[in-house]
Write a structure and sequence with these properties.
Elements (H helix, E strand, L loop, with lengths): L5 E6 L2 E6 L4 H7 L7 E5 L2 E2 L15 E6 L5
Parallel strand pairs: 1-5
Antiparallel strand pairs: 1-2, 3-4, 3-5
């Protein structure tokens, strides 16, 4: 695939190259992340999980995926 069709994003502090027109839902699936057990932040804004399909990543976006951990 052509470099023009790629973008660079940062996910939990690590640089990742993905296809242009890549949605947050695509990212979650690529990372094999269980959606029910995480909170997702895009450019320091918490994202409503119901909107993941409609949010497309842009070059230099910063994504933080935080896993919930139970304890006691």
């Amino acid at each position: 695939m052509n470099k023009k069709n790629k973008i660079k994003i940062v996910v939990n502090g690590k640089l990742l190259t993905v296809n242009a027109k890549f949605s947050l839902k695509n990212l979650i699936e690529k990372l094999k992340t269980p959606i029910s057990k995480v909170a997702i932040e895009l450019n320091e804004e918490i994202i409503d999980k119901r909107k993941l399909k409609k949010i497309f990543l842009k070059n230099k976006d910063k994504v933080e995926i935080v896993h919930f951990i139970g304890g006691g």
